[in-house]
Amino acid sequence: MRKVIAFLKEQTRDGLLPWSAQDATAQRFKLSHAAVELVALQNGLFPARYQRNRNMIQVDEQLRLFQSRVAVIGCGGLGGYVLEELARLGVGQIIAVDPDIFEEHNLNRQILSSPALLGQPKAAVAAERLAQVNPAVTVTAIQDYFCLDNGFELLAGAQVAVDALDSISYRLQLAEFCNQAGIPMVHGAIGGWYGHVASQFPGETTVQQIYRHWVAGKGIEQQLGNPSFTPAVVASLEVAEVCKILLGKGEPLRNRKLAIDLLEMEMQEISYAPAPVTLVDAA
After folding, report:
1. The listed CATH number (3.40.50.720, 3.20.20.70, 1.10.1040.10, 3.40.50.1360) that belongs to domain 68-271
2. Phi, psi (deg, nearest 5) at residue 111
3. Is pTM beyond 0.85 here?
4. Which class for 188: exposed (0-12), middle (13-18), buried (19 or more C-beta within 10 A)?
5. CATH code 3.40.50.720 region(s) in the chain
6. What is the mean pLDDT of the chain?
7. How far apart are CA 258 and CA 277, in angstroms?
């Protein structure tokens, strides 16, 4: 490993390690790109691909992102953008869960879709795309439905779960699972010109409160549809929340929802009551 570190340091210029050097190291020492990036970050070498990060993310924080594991439930409108941005941010391990294949109606808004990929599984396409975007990222693609019964298996080791679902029923199951598993959940939803984002930490009930009047059906997106831009906006806000949670920076959207109106270009913050604290009688 000393030879690897020495080789990487020799290739570093102005504090930045170019991708060509990472790739050459992987080939020369027969290592994965993930292994090379880990060694580089552990030794304070900042990969040049993240150079626009470093005024806001230090090398130790970039290492923390790379050592993080995030689960994205849904690889469609929201999920495609979330996955792409997480990989470009440098999150090292990503779980991509989706049971569906690409269909023609996805083409107007789902960044992972194209006419050539119609009929292909969304999760598998996501893995292939992220391998092209950032070969150092490890993607686990799962072509399956998420539910309470398989949650611990599908999301094993995840530090954050990102809701990119289009079903309120499954979304509520994800919220319940995350409380059981003790991991934060970043929730996003879209419909037409509108969307909202919230973060729920273990023991909180923000998502359940948002949908407290829901009875049945997928949600308002079935009536309003979705254009190309709404998923991109909401997904980017979700990724910002994930980044803050993983790094412990800023103020996440806890016990509140950010409602977005792109037609009038307005944002509104709506607060929700924190979950009541259950006191245990020591007697």
Report:
1. 3.40.50.720
2. -60, -25
3. yes
4. buried
5. 68-271
6. 94
7. 24
